[in-house]
Design a protein that fits this description.
The complex is a heterodimer of chains A (about 160) and B (about 750). Chain A has about 160 residues and is an alpha+beta fold. Chain A contains six helices and five strands. A five-stranded mixed beta sheet of chain A has the order 2-1-5-3-4, with helices on both faces. Chain B folds into three domains: about 30-195, Aldehyde Oxidoreductase, domain 4, CATH 3.30.365.10; about 215-285 and about 335-425, Aldehyde oxidase/xanthine dehydrogenase, molybdopterin binding domain (Aldehyde Oxidoreductase, domain 4), CATH 3.30.365.10; about 435-745, 2-Layer Sandwich (Aldehyde Oxidoreductase, domain 4). The chains are: A alpha+beta (about 160), B alpha+beta (about 750).
């Protein structure tokens, strides 16, 4: 039976309808709301491509049941992190460092790094690598991603 | 194509569903089938209009059969055209991989997108420029040689005219002969080629604005999932449709032979249905025992032998008295492509026409396969490329396209198929296992007098670089039966000038899993064995590994010699034999360090690479850490230096991963490494520092970059481990268990 659900996505209250409250948040965001930021990679919380922020924390949306999220939770996707006109420091740094190849994992890298930097303002290279250890990239953009996160930390300091 | 979509309450209430892409351009990818527009577009490789058009605003549209697989080649191709035509970079647009619009320049494989694709487009651009100058000369009444071009505007005699005004969407109607290429710009006049123009796709990819294949939607579309047999050769016996009767939104269970799929109104319903659907299958146990894989390879029937190197008489030289004989066997396991985004495709049948959207690296080949499968005339099939997750060879994209087409035909509506992670790990075609036996003789002066090697690798169906589609195989629909691992014999031959050489590739009739090419196919496995074995010979001769290679390289191959010397300088190479302490046991202590070199002239005719790996080996655990990796690289003319750096970094990191960690796991029935826990890849803390030296030769031809530097990685690591420990690793991957076992025997 279809149920209605109100969510807070990228600063807006949005209503959606689903058949199954156990449906992962990823499919609500991608299929019901038409967002492109969070991506399907494994459905197992192993790769990080689906990462979004819920109340500022990086969360794997592929294993987050819709029923576990309420309209009081602030969900932010890559689209809501920053816009082309007003980029988040991590997004800007990824452009500056050309820190991706195919870019399929990039959503997860940026969302994970942004949540990490919010509480770690001056991370070392080792800290960054540790923070991103659960995010997989197959193209081999890792070295650039680490540089981009370091650059983002500097950008955020300067802002 | 699609617009960015940040939901506002009003928009969502209005749409209440998935984003549907609307089409506003004629003859652009993403458009539904428009035969009239498509029919007018020339596709022959012999016509300038095939490759580019200039509209009235002066915008240049380039039609490229080679596609951007996440490499940045779209940006590089635009650089080439912008420079050749003298137009601003941002006035060049690229249409890629649409069988109705772009020529068949071959699949996007083999590091040929610039070398072949870019050069063909450059030839067309040079001819277009020259025709525009002739037109301008007539119109302005000025001699062509007195004209200058800047930003797409031609000036002379105090007058100007723009490209847009001159040609304005009309055809050039000029022939181009790539075997007799026109004169193109002198290297000294390059303005955009050779510079690190930022990639055009990155801003949209970091903001969620980009439309990947996985994001694409067509009106009226349904969602499909496939249910693969639990054993690779099992046949479908029965399906219990009632097992999913409780799932809302299921439209149809599609069964055709042993092909089984579900189609639903929404993606989650399709996922649940595919997971819960009960079916019975026959049993099948046709795979070899994993622990005896290489015995199986050695025992496989040989279809034919390819002799890839033959100089002097190796057998006779090997039998001479007084020579030191050395022999070794190397093996390289089975790998999966492992794209982070599992394969995805959409298909639509409409009025007898099939339109297929996918991230295929070879839309023209896919078109032929789908036409055959569905018994359609070729002209009734259109395949359109949309960028997907990184593609490192023929992975599952084409199979997902066939799945989507089969399901779309069955339900009479467009269907999007998204493979699961297990579908991708289990059913993408695999990089086949390779086994290599090597023997050599050294004389008393440390010169190699004989080199004799045998490679065991699958055959390749001649001129058929297409991998059978899973859906066609399971359903029994028409298909060409091919074995297509790619040109895996390449680099079995060696760049060294030994007096006696015998190299044979035993092309095997079969290989356990449906094979295909994975980045650097064969070249990686073969270079690995050759470059490890020459290191063994250097050690046996008590020679420095770089000196030993230089001693045996063709002295006329100056670029090869330079790239090795540059790698040595870059890595501050300490000239001495391996192992490090001059003794078999190597250094004392649990963690020991070493360095190893490797060299490759790709396919013996193009890109040169020399690499040095620095490693740490923890002897108690067998863990290897590649701490730093140096690459000296000569691909001739560089189009975009940062793009090349990015490709080299990718080659190194991905191949360190393949070398240290990756191995397909299977039982007698099927693949068992179906996720990232059972098929782990390199993670951030394990990534080496990468240092490189790019040799730019603007006046030379541009050669490939996407694969060559991967070829040297496994051997450089093995050679470094030998330097550190005195133990030789001869079996990829170098997992801690295997390393400990080799160390015990050293």
């Amino acid at each position: 039976m279809a149920i209605s659900k109100t969510l807070n996505v990228n600063g807006a209250q949005v209503a959606t309808t689903v058949d199954d409250p156990e449906m992962p948040l990823l499919y609500v965001l991608r299929d019901n709301l038409g967002l492109h930021g969070p991506r399907f990679g494994c459905g197992l919380a192993q790769c990080g491509a689906c990462t979004v922020h819920i109340d500022g924390k990086a969360v794997r949306s592929c294993v987050t049941a819709l029923s576990s999220v309420s309209e009081n939770n602030r969900i932010v996707t890559l689209e809501g992190l920053g816009t082309p006109e007003n980029l988040h420091p991590v997004q800007q740094a990824f452009i500056d460092e050309q820190a991706l190849q195919c870019g399929y994992c990039t959503n997860g890298m940026i969302m994970e790094a942004a949540a990490f930097l919010a509480t770690n303002r001056k991370p070392s290279e080792a800290d960054i690598k540790k923070a991103l250890a659960g995010n997989l990239c197959r193209c081999g953009s890792h070295a650039r991603v680490v540089k981009a996160v370091q650059r983002a930390a500097d950008l955020a300091q300067a802002r | 194509m699609s617009k960015n979509f940040i939901p506002s309450r009003r928009d969502l209430l209005k749409s209440g569903g998935a984003l549907v892409v609307s089409f506003s351009f004629a003859a652009r990818p993403g458009e539904t089938l428009a035969q009239d527009a498509a029919a007018a577009k020339p596709l022959a490789l012999t016509a300038v209009d095939t490759f580019l058009a200039i509209d009235a605003t002066g915008t240049v549209t380039v039609y490229s059969g080679k596609v951007d697989l996440g490499t940045g080649v779209r940006t590089a191709l635009a650089q080439i055209v912008a420079d050749e035509l003298d137009v601003p970079f941002n006035r060049v647009e690229i249409v890629q991989g649409d069988t109705a619009l772009t020529p068949d320049q071959g699949p996007t494989f083999g590091s040929l997108s610039i070398q072949i694709g870019g050069v063909q487009i450059r030839n067309a651009a040079a001819l277009a420029r020259s025709a525009l100058l002739d037109l301008a000369a007539t119109q302005l009444g000025v001699k062509p040689e007195e004209l200058t071009v800047s930003a797409g505007t031609i000036s002379g005699g105090g007058k100007t005219v723009s490209y847009g005004d001159l040609v304005g969407g009309k055809a050039f109607s000029l022939a181009v002969d790539h075997t007799k290429p026109p004169k193109t710009k002198d290297a000294k006049d390059f303005k955009i080629v050779g510079t690190s123009v930022p990639r055009v796709d990155i801003p949209d990819k970091v903001t969620g604005k980009f439309t990947y294949m996985h994001d694409f939607r067509v009106p009226g579309m349904l969602h499909g999932r496939v249910i693969r047999p639990p054993a690779i050769g099992a046949t479908l016996q029965s399906v219990d449709e009632s097992s999913i009767s409780g799932i809302a939104g299921v439209v149809k269970i599609v069964r055709d032979g042993s092909f089984l799929g579900v189609v639903a109104e929404n993606e989650w319903a399709a996922i649940k249905a595919a997971t819960r659907l009960k079916a019975t299958w026959s049993s099948w146990e046709g795979l070899p025992e994993q622990g005896k894989l290489m015995e199986h390879v050695r025992a496989t029937k040989v279809a034919k032998d390819d002799v890839t190197g033959n100089v002097g008489n190796a057998a006779e030289a090997m039998g001479k008295d007084g020579v030191k004989k050395i022999a070794a066997t190397y093996d390289f396991t089975i790998h999966t492509h492992g794209s982070i985004g599992p394969s995805c495709a959409i298909a639509e049948f409409k009025d007898g026409q099939l339109t297929s959207w996918s991230a295929s690296q070879a839309t023209h080949n896919l078109r032929k396969q789908l036409a055959k499968m569905f018994g359609l005339p070729l002209e009734n099939v259109r395949c359109i490329y949309l960028e997907g997750s990184g593609c490192y060879g023929r992975n599952g994209h084409e199979d997902a396209a066939a799945d989507a087409a089969l399901l779309a035909k069955a339900v009479g509506r467009p269907v999007r198929v998204q493979w699961s992670r297990a579908d991708e790990h289990g059913w993408d075609p695999k990089g086949p296992p390779t086994l290599i036996d090597l023997r050599a003789a050294l004389d008393g002066s440390g010169t190699v007098t004989a080199w004799d090697s045998e490679f065991f690798m699958p055959q390749q169906t001649p001129n058929m670089f297409v991998v059978p589609l899973v859906a066609a195989t399971l359903s029994g629909m028409p298909a060409d039966e091919t074995v297509a691992p790619g040109n895996v014999f390449q680099n079995s031959n060696i760049p060294y000038k030994f007096a006696n050489i015998n190299i044979v590739c035993h092309r095997l009739e079969t290989t356990p899993f449906r094979p295909s090419w994975i980045r650097t196919p064969g070249r990686m496995q073969n270079t690995y064995a050759n470059e490890c074995f020459i290191d063994e010979l250097a050690a046996a001769a008590g020679a420095d590994p770089i000196d030993f290679r230089l001693q045996h390289l063709d002295p006329n191959d100056k670029r090869g010699i330079e790239v090795l010397n540059r790698a040595a300088a870059l890595a501050k190479w300490d000239k001495r034999p391996s192992p490090k302490n001059g003794q078999k046991s190597g250094q004392s202590g649990d963690v020991v360090t070493g360095r190893g070199v490797s060299y490759c002239k790709y396919e013996l005719v193009r890109t040169y690479i020399a690499a040095v790996a620095e490693v740490e080996v923890k002897r108690s655990t067998g863990e290897i850490r590649v701490t730093r990796f140096y690459v000296a690289h000569d691909c001739g003319q560089i189009i975009n230096p940062d793009g090349i750096r990015s490709q080299i970094e990718g080659n190194v990191i991905q191949t360190v991963s393949r070398t240290l960690k990756e191995e397909l796991k299977f039982n007698r029935s099927t693949v068992t490494s179906l996720d990232w826990a059972s098929y782990p890849i390199l993670t951030f803390p394990e990534v080496p520092d990468i240092v490189m030296d790019l040799i730019d030769r603007p006046a030379e031809k541009p050669w490939g970059v996407g694969e060559p530097s991967a070829a040297v990685v496994p051997s450089a690591i093995s050679n470094a481990v030998f330097d550190a420990t005195g133990a030789r690793l001869r079996s990829v991957p170098y997992t801690p268990d295997k390393v400990r076992s080799v160390l015990r025997g050293a």
